[in-house]
Write a structure and sequence with these properties.
By secondary structure, this protein is of the alpha/beta class. The protein has 11 helices and 7 strands. Helix 10 packs antiparallel against helix 11.
């Protein structure tokens, strides 16, 4: 029987060093490692993460899934119960080597009904709720820290766009040979902001020797549900699609959020096509909340296209 090791970090500034230490101390024999790309968000449902889906495809009945701690795999109660159901269906064991869940057999089922034991389910829900409370408290403390920094005069968030009264000077400097990186430093903005100001001057938009060339398509703004944004951030995207997500503005809505994305209609259509797996099918597990978010996004894109040129 194979030992399947799963690793994940939430940002590309983090490393798996602590997970490696815990798993090495466990003495796992002949591990087969599945490690998500750095920055794979914990908000993305485990059953939609590329490497965990690859692990489930690779696994055979009787194999054991090893993780350093529970929250490397799941985020909240719903995620845990969904994953346990899939592991039970595929007859896989789960071994957690550190943290509150390490002493529990989370795959224990009632011998007659086959359902998760009520005591296990209660402990899972209680410990998951405690973990969510800890993250919520950290989020609140972060928000309070940002407010305190703002009161001292520090301004967080994205750097601003190029000021309207400096746009002409930026365009002139670019035509004279100034680099985008240097212009970004001069104006204290991001390179993306400089590219936006220079959009029609960049090589990919320049057409020489042609008349009556159509004007470049202007970007339009659309609110993308957070569950769709989480899925797309973990997907393989074209540069224009990745740039649209990276430059999006997060808008908090209760416990969730939407991502306000400004890009062309064509890129909006491409992003919609990328999240088709959220509807399920072809052996992909369906998560109702993600499917609902995807269809909501589809309605918004369809409305946008119907009002377009």
């Amino acid at each position: 029987m194979a030992n399947l090791v799963y690793k994940r970090v939430s940002t590309d500034q983090q490393s798996t060093a602590r997970q490696d230490l815990v798993l090495d101390e466990a003495g796992i024999e002949d591990p087969v490692v599945f490690e998500e790309d750095p920055g794979t968000s914990s908000r993305l449902h485990p059953l939609q993460r590329p490497k965990f889906r690859e692990l489930l495809t690779y696994a055979r009945p009787g194999d054991t899934v090893h993780i350093s701690e529970m929250f490397r795999l799941v985020r909240g109660t719903g995620h845990i119960l969904d994953v346990l159901d899939v592991l039970h269906r595929d007859r896989l064991a789960l071994r957690i080597h550190d943290g509150a869940f390490s002493a529990m057999d989370l795959t224990a089922r009632h011998p007659r009904t086959g359902e998760l034991l009520s005591t296990v389910k209660f402990m899972v829900q209680t410990l998951a709720a405690a973990g969510e409370l800890q993250r919520d408290l950290q989020r609140e403390l972060t928000y309070d820290g940002l407010r305190a920094a703002e009161a001292r005069g520090s301004k967080g968030g994205r750097r601003p766009a190029v000021a309207a009264d400096r746009t002409d000077a930026v365009r002139t400097a670019y035509l004279e040979g100034r680099s985008i990186a240097a212009l970004a430093r001069d104006c204290d903005v991001s390179r993306g902001a400089i590219r936006t100001a220079l959009a029609d001057l960049l090589p990919e938009h320049t057409v020489e020797g042609q008349e009556d060339v159509p004007a470049p398509e202007l970007p339009v703004t659309l609110d993308m549900p957070g569950k769709v944004a989480d899925f797309l951030r973990a997907a393989e995207l074209e540069p224009a699609e990745r740039a649209a997500l990276d430059q999006g503005v997060t808008v908090r809505r209760g416990q969730g959020y939407t991502l306000r994305v400004s890009t062309t209609r064509a890129v909006h259509r491409q992003l919609l096509a990328r999240c088709q797996p959220l509807d399920g099918g072809q052996g992909t597990p369906t998560v109702p909340a993600q499917r609902k978010a995807r269809r909501e996004y589809e309605n918004r894109v369809s409305a946008l296209i119907s009002t377009g040129p």
